[in-house]
Specification:
single chain; alpha+beta; seven-stranded mixed β-sheet; 3 helices; disordered C terminus; structural constituent of chitin-based larval cuticle; cuticle; Insect_cuticle; Adult-specific rigid cuticular protein 15.5
Length: 208
């Protein structure tokens, strides 16, 4: 009887050892499977990302076929100047600490219609001169603007390196009613040399 019990104990110990080995092997196998699954997920994710990046519909940006130039300057007392221009649009303005402004802008539509506005804003109010080739317009002189038609649109400007000019010093004189300052942005924008406005309140007296 004692021998039988001893034999059963030996068999039990042997079975437990085999079971431990089997469990350890199974655990190691499962660990390897989890690691392989994780690697497979990473590979799939990278492949999906590469496919998205290779899609021209998703990655092609808007092509800018135009050219532009711009410049700006400003000092610590309120004098400033800026300009920018593209093949179809342009704007330039100078101003001082007293709120006096002088500038121009040009707009050219795809169908050939064009408009250029030169303006002055100061103690005497706002005055503008409009040149356009838009249909239905004719030479007229409303209270604050002179419209000249027809108007030939400007030629697309060449693209020089941007030039930043120092802010012009405009005299802040109370009751200013006329300007003789010239807008110096025309050469950058490919436009005529700005406006020298004389005779207060008469926007049609623009010198090109």
């Amino acid at each position: 009887m004692f021998k039988i019990i001893l034999s059963l104990k030996v068999l039990s110990i042997s079975w437990y050892k085999r079971a431990d080995k089997n469990i350890a092997a199974l655990s190691h196998h499962l660990y390897l499977n989890q690691e392989q699954i994780m690697i497979a997920k990473i590979i799939i994710l990278c492949a999906a990302f590469a496919a998205v990046c290779a899609n021209p519909i998703l990655t092609t940006s808007v092509v800018n076929t135009g050219a532009s130039v711009s410049a700006k300057s400003q000092d610590g007392i309120g004098n400033y100047a800026f300009n920018y221009g593209t093949a179809t649009n342009a704007r330039a303005e100078i101003g001082d600490a007293a709120g006096n402004k002088q500038g121009s802008y040009t707009i050219t539509d795809i169908d050939g219609r064009a408009r250029r506005v030169d303006y002055v804003a100061d103690a005497a109010g706002f005055r503008a001169s409009v040149k356009t080739n838009e249909p239905g317009t004719a030479l007229s002189a409303p209270a604050s603007a002179a419209i000249a038609s027809p108007y030939a649109p400007p030629v697309a400007p060449a693209v020089p390196a941007p030039v930043v000019a120092a802010a012009p010093a405009l005299a802040a004189v109370p009751g200013v009613s006329s300007y003789s300052t010239v807008i110096g942005h025309g050469s950058v924008l490919g436009l005529p040399l700005g406006a020298g406005i004389i005779a207060p309140g008469l926007a049609k007296t623009i010198v090109w």
